[in-house]
Amino acid sequence: MTKKQNDIFEAAKKLFYKFGVRRVTIEDICEEANASKMTFYKYFPNKIELVKAVVDNYFSNAMEKYREMMQSEITAEEKIRRTFELKLESAMGLEMDFLADLYKYPDDALKEHLNVWKQRSIDLTKSWFIEMQQNGLIIKELNFPVFMLYADAIQSFVLNDETMNFFGTTRELTHTVSRLLLYGITERKGEENPTE
């Protein structure tokens, strides 16, 4: 990527994250990047292709962090807690207008592009789920579609503003939620300091 192409990309990312896709024009991006429209079209045929590049950057970075964490030697509980932390970090780095615009934007090519990333994420999660289940870390009675429904419900609970108001830090929230997911509401006996 040339410097000017990167300037356009970074300007678009900043504006899309802040205002959403629909409200940001090519003119806005060019002004933010200090680039002409001619320069814009030299690198990107249209706004949708630039949106796709921003989406690719966002999802590939998020999935790489997730892959690295899942391949690390940390415990199953820590992996689940870190999964929630990574999702929260990703969600909090974006304005909701950007996400809403992405999934409601009336462009079939963009919708298909997002569906490809969604399927990649599901496939990665499924491979982790199967590995954990085969290693006896997830109960064998739980099937993957039910797990995904449960995980989606927990994610909605975690990302709810009211839920977040009860916790001082993201780490505190994700620690509590991962313990709820793994152990329910019962206290674990013999645990030295369950809040660390």
From TrEMBL:
Gene Ontology MF terms in the entry: DNA-binding transcription factor activity; transcription cis-regulatory region binding
InterPro entries: Homeodomain-like_sf, HTH-type_TetR-like_transc_reg, HTH_TetR
DNA-binding region boundaries: 25-44
PROSITE patterns: HTH_TETR_2
Domain named HTH tetR-type: residues: 2-62
Keyword entries, A-Z: DNA-binding, Repressor, Transcription, Transcription regulation
Protein known as: Transcriptional regulator, TetR family
Organism: Petrimonas mucosa
